[in-house]
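Materials and Methods. Structural model of GMP synthase (glutamine-hydrolyzing). The 177-residue sequence of GMP synthase (glutamine-hydrolyzing) from Staphylococcus aureus was retrieved and submitted for structure prediction as follows.
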Amino acid sequence: TKTAQTIKSHHNVGGLPEDMEFELIEPINTLFKDEVRALGIELGIPEHLVWRQPFPGPGLGIRVLGEITEDKLEIVRESDAILREVIREEGLERDIWQYFTVLPGIQSVGVMGDYRTYDHTVGIRAVTSIDGMTSDFARIDWEVLQKISSRIVNEVDHVNRVVYDITSKPPSTIEWE
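The predicted structure was written out as tokens:
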């Protein structure tokens, strides 16, 4: 529709200085991610590069809702590394179009050992899609989700809860911000 462009701004578009002293050349800027991957395969680019996960232009800050601090960025880095490691170990990296962790700015009560905690919640977002215009949440086996959750709460400081986002796009978007 003619108003679709105002729904949400794209993270990787714009933001460059107006006074650049060179001409920006973007020969494939009209291609979707699936088309870029197909082109990469056709060009013989190594598969580990072609199939790597997209990363938002603004960086990890887009995956921390609310105030961005070094501690919160570290939680996202560590939890995301665990998610990626388990997804790779389980051989799911080709089945899931995009996956990442997000820090939604929610803290909750928990129990770690003999102590009450009031710590962060980490969200897991994993989607299947063809072109990113629409997506559905990835149907990851419960045992795999439990493994990811257990590792995150046991290995990442100041996290006592992990949630799994089961929302489609639309109505949500893939990224949380």
